[in-house]
Design goal:
- The chain has helices spanning about 5-45, 50-80, 85-120, 120-125, 125-155, 175, 180-210, 215-250, 250-260, 290-300, 320-350, 355-365, 370-385, 405-435; strands at about 160, 170, 265, 270-275, 280-290, 305, 385-390, 395.
- The chain is globular, with a radius of gyration of 23 Å.
- It has 14 helices and eight strands.
- It starts with 6 loop residues before the first helix and ends in a 37-residue tail after the last helix.
- It folds into two domains: about 10-180 and about 405-470, no CATH class; about 190-380, no CATH class.
- Helices cover about 65% and strands about 5% of the residues.
- A two-stranded antiparallel ribbon has the order 1-2. It has a two-stranded antiparallel sheet with strand order 3-6. It has a two-stranded antiparallel ribbon with strand order 4-5.
- Helix 9 crosses helix 13.
- Strand 7 (about 385-390) and strand 8 form a beta hairpin.
- With about 475 residues, it is mainly alpha-helical.
């Protein structure tokens, strides 16, 4: 024990802590890479230099975020060997090759074209440079595909067998990759990344519009961000509903925890708010809407919804965290939907750039995507407990033979270093976003990116240390 915590509890907290820092960076780079490709494509079509200035402005931010994603990803992956070596041994024959495919496809694609995108426009010409930007964007999507496939197999495992050593061995790679939850989770994650970027970019644009609503570059990206919010948010809500139905079929205990239901019942209510109490087996102070829970989950008013009490306590997740994180995610999604509808109304009335309260709302909602993706990840991963490979391998059986003091000491070190280093990095990114949009950049050969060590030397067209932040 270390300060009253077991090695398993500390190892889980350490992975959650480092993963939380890491996850926000790929969720931004996936959307930002596609945003950059769109900006450059519009510049080639419209010949408006404002798009090129915006491209240079945001590629600086992309470079820093990408680098921070690389570092946090490397640190996170080491924990598979230090804290979760038993899991790595048992699941390695399945998980290892999938991670390798990500390196062979997404890593080389991103690393190969990243230098051209950052430094090469004056060297290779606009057409090839646009192609390089598109390849970086494609690389981020391929990276997300492989990582989501790995995690989805852990959620809904299939296509494997076991050997005499108790290892999971692949029998059908197609079944492993395209497991039952994979398509829903991939689309849901990618759309979440696009919305994260839309509101981050929209928040920056709104801040500049509040200072000067005649700012032409700010108007461009604010309009683009609001189109994304208006179009993608309803699609994301629909995909989320489909993902929920899939989870209800394959991981009903997770849904029960998310909804706060302890008793199996037909015509289950929708619990808007309450405090789940696992010991008492009830959600206290529940505010409910009758039958709506069954309607949303089963699409029938009298559909049956299993409660947590249908499982032994050692075989089900603790409800408190997924119950609240799910509501945070859904609540932010509803606010995004409202902002998107508000922007459509403003656009129809010709007030998109004049409605100050809309700009203030979008500015406040700037970080909402990051909060929503973290809340969604907590819901997914805590709801999977007590398993690492759902229904097959328990978390308690996945941990390395390490002592609680050793894990606790490394956890404290991580907390101190992460808040100092990445806290400074986030503050630096905020400073970059404060730069005037009208002035733009001449590229990454000069300016603040030198501080990140990404400026090429006289015989270096691409950054030698380019890595994968996903």
């Amino acid at each position: 024990m270390f300060l009253g915590f077991t090695a398993e509890g500390l190892a889980r907290f350490q992975f959650a802590f480092t993963m939380s820092f890491h996850f926000i960076f790929p969720s931004f780079t996936i959307g930002l890479a596609s945003f950059l490709a769109t900006l450059e494509g519009l510049w080639l079509i419209k010949k408006d230099d404002a798009y090129l200035r915006l491209f240079d402005y945001w590629k600086t931010i992309f470079a820093i975020v990408f680098g921070m994603g690389v570092v946090t990803g490397i640190v996170m992956s080491y924990q598979f060997g230090t804290n979760w070596s038993v899991f790595s041994d048992k699941a390695g024959p399945v998980v290892g090759p999938l991670m390798g495919y990500e390196v062979l496809t997404a890593f080389f694609l991103e690393a190969g074209f990243l230098g051209i995108m950052l430094f090469g426009r004056k060297r290779v010409g606009p057409g090839l440079h646009f192609f390089a930007t598109c390849m970086v964007a494609l690389g981020t999507l391929i990276s997300a595909t492989w990582i989501i496939s790995v995690n989805s197999w852990m959620q809904t495992p299939q296509g494997h067998g076991t050997n005499a050593a108790g290892q999971f061995i692949p029998l059908d790679w197609w079944a492993i990759i395209f497991n039952p939850s994979f398509p829903y989770r991939l689309v849901h994650t990618v759309l979440a990344s696009y919305l994260t970027t839309a509101f981050a970019v929209g928040g920056v644009a709104a801040w500049h519009l509040l200072k000067n609503n005649g700012n032409h570059p700010a108007r461009i990206i604010f309009s683009m961000a609001m189109w994304m919010a208006a179009i993608v948010t309803p699609i994301q809500i629909f995909v989320g509903d489909m993902h929920g139905l899939n989870t209800l079929h394959y991981q009903p205990a997770k849904i029960a925890a998310m909804e706060g239901h302890y008793e199996t019942q037909k015509g289950a209510p929708l619990i808007l708010f309450g405090i789940p109490d696992d010991e008492a087996g009830e959600t206290r102070f529940a505010i409910e809407i009758p039958k709506l829970g069954s309607l949303l989950l089963t699409h029938e008013l009298d559909g049956e919804v299993k409660g947590l009490n249908a499982w032994d306590k050692q075989d089900r997740p603790k409800a408190l965290i997924p119950f609240f994180t799910f509501r945070i995610m859904v609540g932010l999604g509803m606010l995004m939907l409202l902002i998107g509808a508000w922007s459509v109304l403003a656009r129809v009335r010709g007030k998109l750039y004049e409605w100050t309260w809309l700009h203030r709302a979008v500015w406040v909602m700037g970080p909402s995507g990051f909060i929503a993706v973290l809340a969604g990840w907590y819901t997914t991963e805590v709801g999977r407990q007590p398993y690492t490979v759902y229904g097959l391998m328990r978390t308690a059986d996945s941990i390395s033979p390490v002592s609680a003091p050793a894990v606790g000491a490394s956890l404290i070190a991580f907390i101190v270093v992460y808040f100092l280093v990445f806290g400074a990095g986030v503050l630096y990114l905020l400073q970059l976003m404060r730069r005037p949009l009208q002035d733009g950049d001449d590229g990454l050969d000069e300016g603040p990116v030198k501080a990140a060590g990404l400026t090429p030397g006289p015989h270096q067209d691409t950054p030698l240390g380019a890595g994968n932040g996903h």
